[in-house]
Amino acid sequence: MKASARFRASTPENGLSILHYERATNPAVNIRPAPEKIPNIPSGTPFWEFNKFKMLPRHALPSQLNHPSFPGHYDREILMTTSQRKLDDGSIRMYLNNITFEEPMSPVLLDLYDGQRSRHPSYHTVDRIDGYDVTRRTIPVKLNEVIQIVIQNTATTTGRCDQHPFHLHGHSFFDIGGGNGLYSPIELSRQVENSSTPLLRDVISVYPERDDKNLKYSPGTPCGWRAFRFIADNPGVWIFHCHVTAHMMLGMQTVFEVGIENLNYNSVYLPTP
Ligand SMILES: [Cu+2]
């Protein structure tokens, strides 16, 4: 197996490993293979190969055994735009919909249990396209709502288009498509129609539109999008974040409050014997 960095300047080749099966012949695991035996990594376009994989039958994925099937329709679409800003003190923050995540003073879930926080979000006031409740500082979601998230990637302050592997806690989701530049609802509909079985995933990547480390954009230029659907069937407080740790720490995360009216408040704080 060979690995190399993509989408930014780096050493040309920075990972080579040999996977050796038990009882396989020629177990010369400490000798570097001849050059013609080392696989070539194709260069050029971003990789969408995950979408080309064949689906495994459900029983091959025990953890997903009871996951509901792909929802053909969604109740609400939430658009999330990534961005990056340089602050006056020279530090960098990263944003989702112009909000950079800040750790709350006390955990949201504990505040719900303690009664320090309303258990009844006013869903009717959260009709913004970003779904964000500025008072709660979360995105409240009704139990069993089908949410379609579109991540719109934009170029950084240095004019680069970063890759962001996004991860949602509490739910798997269906990868329904993506593309270059600015989000196209028509293109997404086309991809959903043409895909018989969208993949169930835990991480989804929004890729730079071109694998070209010299490409420069003006900051904020739309440079790729990706979309997924999830069924909000797991009541709780769930974080959604870029899985590049640096991006996450710089603020690229947000919180969903899912069906919190249905949280079981009685099952916690049991008296200890
Ligand atoms: Cu990121």
Characterise this structure:
The radius of gyration is 22 Å and the shape is globular. Strand 3 (76-86) and strand 4 (92-96) form a beta hairpin. With 273 residues, it is mostly beta strands. The N and C termini lie far apart (54 Å). It has helices at residues 108-114, 185-194, 245-249, and strands at 2-3, 15-16, 76-86, 92-96, 139-141, 146-154, 164-168, 173-179, 199-201, 203-206, 222-231, 236-242, 253-258. The structure holds copper (II) ion.
Concise summary:
Pfam families: Cu-oxidase_2 (PF07731). Residues 105-259 form the Plastocyanin-like domain. The chain has 273 residues and is mainly beta.
- Amino- and carboxy-terminal Cα gap: 54 Å
Give me the Rg, rounded: 22 Å
Query: What structural category do the secondary elements indicate?
Result: mainly beta
The low-pLDDT segments are none
> Major β-sheet, in short?
6 strands, mixed
Q: Identify the strand order in the major beta sheet.
A: 4-3-6-11-8-9
- Enumerate the distinct ligands: copper (II) ion
Tell me roughly what share of residues is in helical segments: under 10%
Principal-axes shape call: globular
Query: How many H/I helices?
Result: 3
Order of helices and strands: EEEEHEEEEHEEEEHE
Q: Please tally the β strands and state the result.
A: 13
Q: Could you report the average pLDDT, rounded to the nearest whole number? A: 85
Protein name: Plastocyanin-like domain-containing protein
Pfam family, one: Cu-oxidase_2
Organism: Basidiobolus ranarum
Keywords: Copper, Metal-binding, Oxidoreductase
